[in-house]
Design goal:
Mean pLDDT: 79
GO molecular function, one term: methyltransferase activity
CATH architecture of one domain: 3-Layer(aba) Sandwich
InterPro entries: Methyltransf_11 (IPR013216), SAM-dependent_MTases_sf (IPR029063)
Distance between the termini: 27 Å
GO biological process, one term: methylation
Pfam family, one: Methyltransf_11
Strand content: 15-25%
CATH class of one domain: Alpha Beta
Order of helices and strands: EEEEEHEEEEHHHEHEHEEHEHHHEE
Low-confidence stretches: 1-75, 300-305, 316-320
Number of strands: 16
Main location: plastid
Helix content: 10-25%
Shape: globular
Length: 358
């Protein structure tokens, strides 16, 4: 997620009408699709597999079945329990696409915790399903859970990054793709994906077997879904929306081929914990690519001076500022978390850096 302020823009949020309708199964207490008006029954065995989306009334989307074989027996998944990291057991239609994920139930056989889709995304946070307990993240994280910021993100906010040297969506995408060439055809996770600015491009590129758009912000994921609908992306595209904590990634160790984090690390509560998690879930040879703002006198004030940087530990928690790093700090962070083959590209205060799991 990101830190540069947007130019003023009127807020006229779209009606988040996620009226998805289905007649296909779920399990583990899965709720009905938004707007369907009915619970999803468990039907044992059906024929679904691939799906098509057609426009329903009032801007809704209706999933229609295409007859292909569906094995509805429980099986292990790339998804893991965020509590104990045991691979989740999935029951429902196979596939890493929106309707298949929505119609599936996920359960941890070790701690007996169940996970289902909420709205249009699968919630794999530790707090998923809790009824009484709630917690707040640092202000820089909570900011992006706001409906207003989520709505504005691709409507002016992100475009302002060019002032700091960010090349822009298309060029940044191609730069990342160059880094990801060794893992083409694998599973890519776009962490802190925001409104899916890059997730959608990775998915539509056809270069990956599946793309998982992952963010902690519910409203960012809803915006991502809205953009998918507006762009008329086929609903059986291998793109899943998942809510998760960057410091508690819901994936089995050594299960992911590629991880992308666009303009995000400066917003993370603990970048070291996050990079350690990224290193854990990457397969041997897996690639991590990220962009962020380098520390400058403009965004870091006196803390851009090496001698004063240790004082951030004292002042940082007080002013709730973003974390901006030097290139040396980013390299040290990646290497310390077990990544190798560090490389970077810098343009003013923009940096794209990469590391690989040995």
């Amino acid at each position: 997620m990101d830190a540069v302020e947007s130019s003023s823009s009127p807020y006229s949020p779209p009606s988040l009408r996620h009226k998805l309708r289905t007649t296909v199964c779920g399990c583990f207490g899965s709720p009905s699709l938004p707007g369907s008006g009915a619970e999803r029954p468990h039907t044992g065995s059906v024929r679904a597999g691939q799906v098509e989306a057609t426009r329903g009334g009032h801007g809704g989307v209706q999933f229609q079945e295409i007859k292909t074989e569906l094995n509805d027996t429980p099986k292990t998944e790339v998804f893991a329990c965020p509590v104990c990291y045991e691979p989740l057991i999935r029951k429902g239609p196979p596939g890493m696409n929106l309707p298949a994920i929505y119609r599936s139930g996920f359960k941890c056989s070790k701690c007996n915790k169940s996970f289902t889709s909420k709205d249009v995304f699968l919630d794999l946070t530790v707090t998923s399903g809790m009824k009484e307990y709630s917690e707040l993240k640092p202000a820089r994280t909570e900011l992006f859970r706001s409906p207003l910021v989520s709505f504005l993100y691709e409507r002016g906010w992100r475009q302002n990054f060019n002032r700091s040297g960010f090349p822009g969506r298309d060029e940044e995408f191609q730069m990342a793709q160059d880094y990801f060439k060794p893992v083409a055809g694998g599973i890519l996770v776009d962490v802190s994906c925001g409104s899916g600015l890059f997730s959608r491009k990775f998915a539509s590129s056809g270069a990956y077997s599946a793309v998982i758009a992952l963010d902690f912000s519910e409203n960012m994921l809803r915006q991502c879904y809205d953009y998918i609908r507006q762009e008329e992306t086929p609903m059986n595209t291998n793109l899943a929306l998942v809510r998760a904590d960057i410091s508690r990634l819901p994936f089995a160790s050594c299960s992911i081929d590629a991880i992308h984090a666009g303009a995000a690390i400066h917003c993370w509560p603990s970048p070291s914990n996050a990079i350690a998690e990224i290193s854990r879930v990457l397969k041997p040879g897996g690639v991590f690519v990220a962009t962020t703002f380098l520390s400058t006198p403009t965004n870091s004030g006196p803390f851009s001076i090496d001698a004063l940087r240790p004082l951030r530990q004292i002042v940082g928690p007080v002013n709730s500022s973003y974390n901006f790093f030097t290139e040396g700090e980013l390299k040290d962070l990646c290497i310390s978390c077990g990544l190798v083959n560090y490389s970077s590209k810098v343009q003013r205060s923009f940096i794209m850096f990469s590391g690989q799991k040995p």
